[in-house]
Amino acid sequence: MTEPRIKLAEVEHVYEGRSGAVQALGRTDLTVQPGEFVSVVGASGCGKTTLLRIVAGFVRASTGSVEIDGEQVTGPAPERGVVFQRPSLYPWLSVAGNVEFGLKMRRVPRKARRETARRYLDLVGLGDFADAAPYELSGGMQQRCQIARVLATEPSTVLMDEPFGALDALTREKLQGELRSIWAAEQRTVLFVTHSVEEAVLLSTRVLVMSPRPGRVILDLPIESDPADDLATLRTSPAVLAAAEKVRAAVTSGPA
Ligand SMILES: Nc1ncnc2c1ncn2[C@@H]1O[C@H](COP(=O)(O)OP(=O)(O)OP(=O)(O)O)[C@@H](O)[C@H]1O
Where is the ABC transporter domain (predicted)? Predict the structure, then answer.
């Protein structure tokens, strides 16, 4: 059997905030295999971002163990790329410069990083904007650039926190389709936090529903869909619609 890409065992998290202790995450056990696309949904404040930040290594869980490919997570690492809701591009660098940045830090030679940046900019549809400044891009294009920047460093695991939450509906649909195609082509492992049940069910191979705080996984639902299917087909697929119903029921009514 293959080593799990992500493994959380008996993880809990309590924040010591200014207004006292807040238990954000209840006991969580989770195993994600390489190549899975796992979405996490649940009510606001249920601990989705906390879970993602623990896997990213930004937050150290109060208890339990977190492993990536069998290694304990002790902090952030390049094999885990994080895409935030709002793109934070370097304004003094061009679009290509932003995508190349992580590779430059790793001392990848100039020619190789140019080629990699070009490939990922093409993949996200920004091939014609390599020399543009970030402020010349729309919000959706900036988010594409952030996704290219993260993918260019070729992380084994991509952690995405509401990456399309700030976009208009049409741009969001377009980026969902692009992300799905990229995932189908590259088979990276994805952990994806979203408020949208539809988005979760359409994009994922598996959807986790968390209970209200302290968040625990109350539904772990595999989604049957073919990676080759386009999103337009999936939106009306009976299996996808039935899965969305189940997820929605769990989000609104809690554990069965
Ligand atoms: N740095 C922090 N210090 C103290 N409490 C925090 C901190 N970060 C989050 N919390 C609390 O932990 C709980 C879970 O927060 P988290 O951001 O993980 O939830 P979420 O499900 O991602 O929420 P949303 O869907 O609204 O983004 C919330 O009650 C929040 O107030």
Answer: 6-237
- Output the DSSP codes for 38-56: EEEEESTTSSHHHHHHHHH
Query: Tell me, what's the pLDDT at 193?
Result: 97
Ligand 1 pocket test, candidate residues 48, 54, 59, 195, most atoms within 8 A of CB: 48
Pocket-forming residues, ligand 1, beta carbon under 6 Å: 15, 17, 22, 24, 42, 44-50, 213
218 SS3 class? strand
ipTM higher than 0.90?
Answer: yes
How is the chain split into domains, by residue range?
6-42+65-253
Positions of the chain with pLDDT lower than 70, given as ranges: 1, 254-256
CATH architecture of 6-42+65-253: 3-Layer(aba) Sandwich (3.40)
